[in-house]
Amino acid sequence: MGFVSVLAYAQKLVGERLQPGEIAVDATAGTGVDTLFLAQKSGPRGTVYSFDIQEEALNRTRERLQGQPGLSEVRLIAKSHHVMKEAVEPAHLGKIAAVMFNLGYLPGADSGVITLPETTLPALEAACRLLRRGGVLTAVLYPGHAGGGQEAHAVQDWAEQLPGAEYEALTYRFVNREATAPYLIGVSKRK
Ligand SMILES: C[S@@+](CC[C@H](N)C(=O)[O-])C[C@H]1O[C@@H](n2cnc3c(N)ncnc32)[C@H](O)[C@@H]1O
What we know:
The chain has helices at residues 6-15, 33-42, 55-65, 84-87, 117-130, 148-160, and strands at residues 23-26, 47-51, 73-77, 96-102, 131-141, 167-172, 183-189. The protein has 191 residues and is α/β, with parallel strands linked by helices. Strands 3-2-1-4-5-7-6 form a seven-stranded mixed beta sheet, with helices on both faces. The relative contact order is 0.16. S-adenosylmethionine binds next to helix 2.
């Protein structure tokens, strides 16, 4: 049996931690795959915040959610993820079980609209502050497109300097594929 994909591994890390009724964030809604996953996991008593700077992404996410049973409340937010702390209800600060980032560009749309280190790094910082103890952050990195390698390095450097007493950080990466293949950074909050 092969290893699960990078995207599936991100969902595995989250699925093991996010409980029904909890709160989660999709920092990059895109086509809504992760938003739907989070909304199913957190269920009718839960809340999911889903951010994207492109209206098209939020529309695609809305369509994906339509008619799906047993979902949490989903708040679609047309803002950059670096303002997530201000966009989240004060009562939810420090209570969030999972934040998922899937960086890069929206498939099938303008590939010039990409996530950028200037906003990704503050968003990752904010996400760490929002997490509850035992909560998890995942970031899928795409070194293959212009600017993607720089962003992946910046995120990896950021994760490597997280204090070990407060966070565990890992990479999930296929080491015998091309160097530009997507890979994952996962961060778990210890306290
Ligand atoms: C690879 S896609 C995400 C794929 C998504 N997880 C899915 O299920 O399809 C990256 C998304 O990040 C969005 N994005 C780019 N910069 C952003 C920012 N500063 N804040 C929030 N979203 C951003 C893009 O518009 C794009 O939709």
